[in-house]
Amino acid sequence: MASKSSEAPPPAAEARRNSILDAAVKQFGRHGYRKTSIEDLAAAAEISKQGLYLHFAGKNEIFLAAMQKYLDDCMALVDKALGRTDLSLVDRLTAALDAWFGRHLATFSPASFDVIVTGDQLSPAAVEEVKGAFMKRIAGALAASPEFTTSGANRSAKEVAQVLFLCGLTWKEGSPSPREFSERLRLCVRVCCHVKK
């Protein structure tokens, strides 16, 4: 989303805006897009409805900004996990996938899954861009790892990243616990990368 001014907002205003967006993610995550009202968003952010309108034009703008911040925060966690040189490839990839998909599992309830459809409808290009960026990071980590390049895998790093992404999408299936989901991710990584441990 483009800012209304070329000047950066004051730190206090930026902190307040981020606080509103974090509260909005939690609200959308619990109740979904359709069942969340402006009043709900204002109450969650501990701000008046009028105060909310000082920061955002309406529900769609809040939703898009909140989801963008949420995805940016997820990507920062992915980068941190992939940058852990003290971990094995399996551990790094599992942590990165968990930082992305596991965070979805912790944030969104089954009642809120309409946020996915809404995001796809309101900003399809942005959704595809972030998916592509995530898979590119996973593929880059694979391609740079001797554990993968010498493993005998008969697929490219890009293909394996795509398969791991598809495996990660199972976060919505069967309501797994965070531990079960992490174990599921680890198995997918080991199989896809031809790594034994």
Automatic annotation (TrEMBL):
<keyword id="KW-0238">DNA-binding</keyword>
<dbReference type="Pfam" id="PF00440">
    <property type="entry name" value="TetR_N"/>
</dbReference>
<dbReference type="InterPro" id="IPR001647">
    <property type="entry name" value="HTH_TetR"/>
</dbReference>
<feature type="DNA-binding region" description="H-T-H motif">
    <location>
        <begin position="37"/>
        <end position="56"/>
    </location>
</feature>
<dbReference type="InterPro" id="IPR009057">
    <property type="entry name" value="Homeodomain-like_sf"/>
</dbReference>
<feature type="domain" description="HTH tetR-type">
    <location>
        <begin position="14"/>
        <end position="74"/>
    </location>
</feature>
<dbReference type="InterPro" id="IPR050109">
    <property type="entry name" value="HTH-type_TetR-like_transc_reg"/>
</dbReference>
<protein>
    <submittedName>
        <fullName>TetR/AcrR family transcriptional regulator</fullName>
    </submittedName>
</protein>
